Amino acid sequence: MTHSKKILASLNGETQKTPPIWMMRQAGRYLPEYRATRAQAGDFLSLCYNPDLAAEVTLQPIRRYGFDAAILFADILLVPQALGADLWFVTGEGPRLSTITSADDFAKIKPADAIHEHLAPVYETVKILARELPSETTLIGFAGAPWTVATYMIAGRGTPDQGPAHALMQGNVEVFDALMDRLTEATITYLDMQIQAGAEVVKLFDSWAGSLNGPAFQKYSLEPAKKIIAALKAKHPTVPIIAFPREAGDGYIGFAKATGADCVALDNSVSAEWAAEKVQVDGCVQGNLASKHMVTGGQALIDETREIVKAFSGGPHIFNLGHGITPDADPENVGLMIETVRSC
Ligand code: CP3
């Protein structure tokens, strides 16, 4: 292996017999120890801004399962909050933010370099993790991609079809573009600080990339990713970057080459066979077991896991789910997935 850490070996283009594995939302409500620490912190945001407790929940799935990577515990919506938006979480419903629908709303958004004071606890969490993680475990930092974060800032909440963001793009493109530019800048400086604090890899979550089509996908998912990656590579040429343009479909093809990403994370709406042929030809891919198997388990979990490992066995691969694990998942099924991957 070219690297002592399995995740870094895959990200550097190495094909491994057994792929490394981690899981989106691996620190989360399906784990009793997470629920206990979250209760101690109070609410979700208090947990995000408490470096000792945020580091603790990041470490919990590493202790329980020995995943090959730990992902910083935080949220993509901390950046809008640091830019001056109000943010709160409604139990059972999800995030709420103050909305941006006009030039006046945008004028209240702070400049990108003003985010660091607010986000200092996140950098502290990264520093603790860099110190405390086992030597074989890779520390992944992350941010939301500008489009995905913008969809929440414009609507003030999660939306099924990102309608309000599309409406602003069509109705007031000056404000929409100004917001996208501000978020691109903020994402660059935020990820730069995470790397300086000790993140070894960073991942860009474009969870709503799938609602952008054709030229809009190029302009608002691919182009910002390219800008962010170029800026980070100029400062940190050896730090690998994972891009996740979720549900991009054909948009996954050539995405790594076009943006400079070292790895493309795949959701489970594309088959592993298709992705091996169309996407993995350009380098490392991550994914893509459906999260439902963490709820249902059994032989289907084992069969599907083996199929994915086999389909991607001809090139660099990091095993993961196609999206985050859900709160109703059974922790035993996570163990079964890991055991299956490691015995392939
Ligand atoms: O992967 C990880 O474990 C790292 C931490 C992480 C979280 N959120 C923790 C979290 C990451 C990378 C995210 C990303 C995130 N957050 C995204 C993009 C990825 C994706 O899943 O599509 C989005 C869209 C958000 C915004 C957000 N945060 C939503 C929609 C929710 C769900 C609200 C709810 O009540 O279910 C959150 C909350 C959240 N983020 C939780 C966790 C562990 C659950 C919080 C809790 O109640 O304890």
Describe, in short, the structure shown.
The chain has 344 residues and is of the alpha/beta class.
- Structural class, by secondary structure, is alpha/beta
Q: Which strand order do you get reading across the main beta sheet? A: 1-4-5-6-7-8-9
Number of helices: 16
Would you tell me which CATH topology applies?
Answer: TIM Barrel
Q: Give the overall pLDDT as a whole number.
A: 97
Show unreliable segments.
none
Considering the chains and any ligands shown, give keywords for the structure.
single chain, alpha/beta, seven-stranded parallel sheet, two-stranded antiparallel ribbon, 12% strand
What does this structure look like?
- The chain is built from 16 helices and 9 strands.
- Strands 1-4-5-6-7-8-9 form a 7-stranded parallel sheet. Strands 2-3 form a two-stranded antiparallel ribbon.
- The model has no long low-confidence stretch (mean pLDDT 97).
- With 344 residues, it is of the alpha/beta class.
- It has helices at residues 6-11, 32-41, 44-48, 51-65, 78-82, 103-107, 116-132, 146-155, 163-171, 173-197, 214-235, 255-259, 272-278, 293-296, 298-311, 331-342; strands at residues 69-71, 87-90, 94-97, 138-144, 201-206, 241-245, 263-265, 284-289, 317-321.
- The radius of gyration is 19 Å and the shape is globular.
- Coproporphyrinogen III binds at residues 24-29, 38, 44, 71, 73-77, 89, 94-95, 142, 144, 158, 205, 207, 324.
